[in-house]
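User: Can you fold this complex?
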Amino acid sequence: MIYLKDIRKSFNQQPVLKGINLKVGKGEVVAILGPSGSGKTTLLRCLNFLDKPDEGIVQVGDVQVKTKKATKREILSLRRQSAMVFQHYNLFAHKTVLENVMEGLIVTKKYKKTDAKRESELMLKKVGLEDKHHHYPSQLSGGQQQRVGIARALALNPQVILFDEPTSALDPELVGEVLSVIKTIAQEGITMVIVTHEMSFAREVSDRVLFMDGGVIVEEGSPLEIFNAPKEERTRQFLNRISRDIPIPYLEEKAN
Amino acid sequence: MTIDILFIWTAFKEILKALPTTLFLTILPLFAGFLIGLAVALIRIYKVKYLSGVANGYVSFFRGTPIIMHIMLIYFGLPLLIDQISAKFDWGFQSNSIPISLFVLTALSLSAGAYLSEIFRSGIISVSNGQMEAAYSIGMNTFQAMTRIVLPQAMAQSIPNFTNIFIGFLHTSSIAFIVSQKEITGAANIVASTNLKFLESFIAAGFIYWGLTIMAEGLSFFIEKKATAYNRGGLQ
Amino acid sequence: MGKSFDPSLIVNFVPTLIHYLGVTLQILAASVSLGMILGITAAILRVFRIPILNQFVILYISFIRGTPILIQLFLVFYGLPAILLFINIDISRMEALYFVIITYALSNGAHFAEIFRGAIKAVDHGQTEAAYSVGMNNGQSFRRIVLPQAIRIAFPNIANAIIGSLKDTSLAFTIGVMDMMGRGETLIAATAHGLEVYLSLSIIYYAVVLLFEKIFRLYENRINRHQAVNVSAAG
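Assistant: Here's the predicted assembly.
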């Protein structure tokens, strides 16, 4: 479903991705973990060319693009293989909830308006927002907005859905509703790549976990392998730092 | 009708002699307007009794009517008023001895005051409440907080707006030619009609205004960089 | 300099002058519509940095912003016939009204272009990314997502520019257009009551400006309804 070969990307001569190779099978749910600045979001954005890789091959579904000679047409058809859920939702601010979901269907899938409406209503029901059709994004809570974002992605019936830290802009009490929606659709067999900071969520939802640091994939494996028996030192350090509720300096202080 | 390119240069040199008048009709009203505007803005922000109603009406009317109206109203109205008062108190003073430019300056000052007061007001409001509270917290009174903390920041933030007002009034001063002031447009009009070369003269005048505008923008950019240095954040 | 002040004349003058308000509004409507087309086109040429045309637009905007409207009016009035004569079109007998409309359209176009350019840049880049993520191409994303939002952002400034333009129309009489101001001049010539004429004109302009402000504010509230928070944040 996804095939990446030797993806490299720099920003201002600062290498962010240093040769990423990856295969994701159909229906697989892959979580990408890693400290900030590790390149995980950039990797995700390279999958739909929101960031254009400097080198390498990107394939999603049947569309393969060789970075060096990517044409506009190729990039567009690559983008149409996937859909994305953004950290800051990025809902179309001037359109209602229903129109947000319909927009992609009408413009890129050439649905008739009535069909697009029916399909969109179905998707909104799925994310539990059937009573918010005519609200504008600014009238919704963050959690509701993100669920619209998920419905918008889902409606396109893409080969892959890309999640870019879907809960990290949310207030803690709103994280749950979004994660539970993602879990539900994960069970439907849609291929998903999820960049996240929610460890327990990654463990629950994913078939495979990638740990990235410094622009490379340091380690990958099943959630069980990565969370319970990480092989690499860097992975262990990261998980230690992040999985404790109590900060380490505090514990050290106590020990003394 | 053909265009006499060489005459544009001749006209340019001739019209440029009127530059001091244009600058005079621009800068003086802005100075007066600065004081009026600041006073009016403070009156409106602090909702001073009685005065704030007058201030609101003044700003609304002068911003709501064309500036040529202000010039004409003062030009026709002030002499009537002066002559009446003069007759009443037997001063033996006639309004025709007052140069027209004084009426123009008065009208433009009142217009500038109205426009500038809005800039001061938004500048002062945009400086956060927290700044005022911080000033109080170290023991300043309202006057000190206003003059030492809020106004300096409000002024610095308003520099782009001041530039726009300056350019606006530079261009507005061209209206004075209608009451036969010999500023740049008036001079261009004279050069045009004495030589019957209208297009060339107004092209020359256009270049002068354009050049002045570009210089003003450049200067403003430079001043703004200096004045808002505190606001740049991070490492220089 | 005129006779003594007679306020009752204002009551007579206002109805006479208001007959000519139509000419003023006609100038405004035509120049704002043409200016809108010009402004959006120019803004797009600037935003997408279309070679040569971009530089041309920069020069055009700089010139309009750099010169008084009076000078622009004279340049069009004397210059346009001269230029068109080169290609053998004689417009020297064209009505002054059209020169005014052309000038104000050019002037509005430049101001609108700067406003639209700022507004387009102010639309969050995430909106474009989201449009790409649902499979839109550049054109679709710009037309359907960015431009409608940019127009909303631009609206208050456009409204101000239109009101500014309305006030600027008071200078059209200098090339002989018979609008309110032009009629006012003839009234002064006939009655020598300059102050009363200008008071009447001020009253009309002020009323029209206030009316426009009111309409624009209502319309702005309407188009910004999608930004009304507080409807139901949590429910």
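Chain B is about 80% helix and 0% strand. Chain B has two domains: 1-18+182-228, 29-169.
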